[in-house]
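Batch job 17 of 40 flagged for manual review because the log was empty.
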Amino acid sequence: MVGAGATPGFDEGVNMGWQELLIILVIAVLLFGGTKLAGIGKASGQALREFKEETRGLTDAERAKKVGDQAQRDSDAKIVDAEIIDDTKTT
């Protein structure tokens, strides 16, 4: 628990309202300019899209590998005829 006037810890998160976000946006526009921010947004969107496509491809490849491994194990399985012997009995 955080006392009055103390800085919140990492696990408590950041509680920002729309006013703080607006101030940050205005500062960003002043620092970088509108066209530069649009370019940064576009580039980050493309990077995120590519990342999602690659991770989707990885998960599909992992699923295919698991299915292939299971099929290999199933084909390697052999039916064995066996009899249970109780060796705990003494004569």
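Reviewer: the log was empty due to a logging misconfiguration, but the result itself is present. The first helix runs from residue 18 to 32. Unflagging and moving on to job 18.
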